[in-house]
């Protein structure tokens, strides 16, 4: 039996493992993917300094570090249930039940889907799927692609596909539906892109981002937005085109697009079919938190964190005894922040099992590091993330006060 | 689909071990340490299964284990996710087919 069980070998889980194993705790990490590293494995972007953020290399560094410590990584193992009996957690997997007094849930994020008619055809995939196929498995996803959905992740991955020599014909919006809301509104999309800072898809948006924050200027920019789209390293971003249907017989053969106005309303009679052999749907990310819910953890809906997140403290503990969370399960941010949060969680677990001043000092430093990395982060999926974190701190305060109260009453 | 052997930042992939596996009775080539989904796509195969109810063709969607769209039968084990499973020499992979729906057909015939 290990002293701590970590679910997810992404940047958060690996960093958490390293931090608590450095204090002598025996760790087991479980991950269902074929190798450790989580979503780090596919990441590849250039930082403002010109340096490359090569996720594959970052993952390798972390994995090499785990090899020098009492950490056992088990890949290809899926967790489907988790329960607490007495002082122990029972983690149910396809390879049997694991037991441990502490669990750290670091399952990361998943992608929101935007259903478009025809989206079940082979050749339609999430934007993240194309990243993994390209950078992790090194297999081309197709010859001629269309991306539906214009957000930060879509542009980061567009760049990665281009780098690997894969041709993306255009980036368009999804047609308005009860599920796609902001994603179908050119004005809202432009607003999000101008807040993306360094990762904004073109120099124009990056340099003009201050100006574009002014509503009237943004509206004007949209009015004069080039009909053929704005070129991003050769691929046009067409904010005034929406995908109404993906067509094909046994697989993707093309996408029917229509022209839309600044509010996303379809202008009738403008539908036209564009050829493609693959389609990527970019709906954005949300915290993958089912296991925390199954374990009975209370949740809070905080849109600035990406959706429903398990209630947790700054130290990454949850109201459930012995259960910690870290990384994108607590809010959608970049890999570097997930790493910093993992370290916090690992040290907090070390504190819980053997409280001492030295660990506490490291924990305080690790907490500071999270803030530092967040402020300096060149990639921010949700511009209001800091507000989201504050909102969770307030929820935690309330929650712990209520806990105190309950202890006084009962 | 072609493999991305050379990459400007990630470098080149050389000296990988090759072997064969079987998909729906057809012998195909795969590389060590890759998923069944990646090996099939590299062989130009996008359709992994046909939907149990509607019979519509399906491929991988999320590629990281979340959507269950890529489920296959592997060495007689049903509902294995192709995007999370490493392909092995001589593995026997089978796609899912549309199931007969006798009740539905009876209802349709009586309408
Ligand atoms: C498709 C996708 C692409 C992304 N691309 C980028 C990018 O380009 N740049 C960027 O900065 N950020 C990107 N992100 C955001 C990403 O979430 C963070 O950068 C970072 O990887 C989060 O780290 P984490 O450790 O919290 O989770 P992850 O890195 O997602 O790791 C979680 C791990 O948990 C495992 N897991 C989940 N559920 C289970 C289970 N039930 N049983 C067993 N194992 C399980 C998964 O297999 C995975 O390996 C992307 C996210 C996704 C989903
Ligand atoms: S493609 Fe989604 S689970 Fe395999």
TrEMBL record, chain A:
Keywords: Coiled coil, FAD, Flavoprotein, Oxidoreductase
A Pfam family assignment: Pyr_redox_2
Annotated GO MF terms: oxidoreductase activity
Lineage: Bacteria, Bacillati, Bacillota, Bacilli, Bacillales
The protein's name: Sarcosine oxidase subunit alpha
Coiled coil segments of this chain: 349-376
Cofactor(s), by name: FAD
Gene3D superfamilies in alphabetical order: FAD/NAD(P)-binding domain
Annotated source species: Cytobacillus horneckiae
UniProtKB/TrEMBL annotation, chain B:
Protein's name according to its UniProt entry: (2Fe-2S)-binding protein
Position of the signal peptide: none
Pfam family, one: Fer2_4
Protein source organism: Cytobacillus horneckiae
An example Gene Ontology molecular-function term: oxidoreductase activity
SUPFAM superfamilies: 2Fe-2S ferredoxin-like
Organism ancestry: Bacteria, Bacillati, Bacillota, Bacilli, Bacillales
UniProt keyword annotations, A-Z: Oxidoreductase
């Amino acid at each position: 039996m290990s002293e701590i069980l970590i679910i997810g070998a992404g940047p958060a889980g690996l960093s958490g493992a390293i931090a608590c194993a450095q204090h002598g705790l025996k760790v087991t990490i479980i991950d269902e993917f074929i190798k450790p590293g989580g979503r780090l494995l596919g990441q590849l972007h250039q930082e403002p300094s010109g340096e490359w953020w090569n996720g594959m290399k970052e993952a390798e560094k972390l994995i090499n570090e785990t090899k020098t410590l009492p950490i056992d990584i088990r890949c290809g193992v899926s967790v489907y249930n988790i329960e607490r009996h007495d002082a122990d957690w029972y983690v149910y997997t396809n390879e049997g039940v694991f037991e441990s007094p502490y669990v750290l849930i670091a399952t990361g994020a998943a992608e929101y889907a935007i259903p478009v008619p025809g989206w079940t055809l082979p050749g339609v995939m999430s934007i993240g799927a194309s990243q993994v196929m390209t950078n992790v498995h090194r297999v081309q996803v197709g010859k001629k692609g269309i991306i539906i959905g214009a957000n930060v992740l879509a542009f980061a991955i567009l760049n990665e596909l281009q780098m690997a020599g894969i041709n993306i014909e255009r980036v368009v919006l999804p047609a308005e539906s009860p599920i796609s809301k902001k994603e179908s509104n050119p004005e809202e999309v432009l607003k999000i892109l101008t807040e993306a800072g360094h990762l904004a898809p073109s120099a124009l948006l990056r340099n003009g981002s201050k100006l574009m924050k002014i509503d009237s200027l943004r509206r004007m920019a949209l009015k004069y937005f080039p009909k053929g789209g704005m070129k991003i390293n050769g691929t046009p971003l067409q904010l005034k085109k929406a995908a109404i249907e993906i067509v094909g017989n046994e697989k993707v053969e093309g996408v029917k697009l229509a022209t839309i106005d600044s509010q996303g309303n379809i202008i009738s009679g403008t539908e036209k079919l564009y050829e493609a052999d693959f389609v990527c749907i970019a709906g954005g990310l949300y915290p993958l938190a089912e296991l925390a819910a199954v374990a009975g953890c209370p949740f809070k809906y905080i849109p600035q964190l990406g959706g429903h997140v398990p209630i947790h403290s700054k130290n990454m503990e949850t109201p459930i005894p012995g259960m910690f969370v870290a990384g994108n399960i607590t809010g959608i941010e970049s890999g570097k922040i997930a790493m910093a949060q993992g370290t916090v969680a690992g040290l907090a677990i070390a504190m819980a099992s053997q409280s001492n001043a030295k660990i506490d000092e490291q924990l305080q430093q690790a907490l500071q590091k999270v803030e530092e990395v967040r402020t300096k982060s060149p990639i921010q999926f949700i511009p209001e993330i800091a507000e989201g974190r504050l909102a969770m701190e307030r929820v935690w305060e309330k929650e712990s006060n209520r806990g105190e109260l309950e202890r006084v009453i009962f | 689909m072609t493999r991305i052997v050379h990459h400007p930042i990630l470098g080149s992939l050389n000296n990988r071990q090759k072997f064969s596996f079987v998909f729906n009775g057809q012998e195909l080539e795969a590389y060590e340490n890759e998923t069944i989904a990646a090996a099939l796509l590299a062989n130009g195969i996008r359709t992994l299964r046909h939907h149990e109810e509607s019979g519509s063709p399906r491929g991988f969607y999320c590629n990281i284990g979340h959507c269950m769209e890529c489920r296959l039968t592997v060495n007689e084990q049903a509902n294995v996710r192709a995007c999370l499973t490493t392909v092995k020499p001589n593995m026997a992979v089978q796609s899912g087919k549309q199931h007969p729906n006798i009740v539905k057909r009876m209802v349709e015939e009586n309408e």
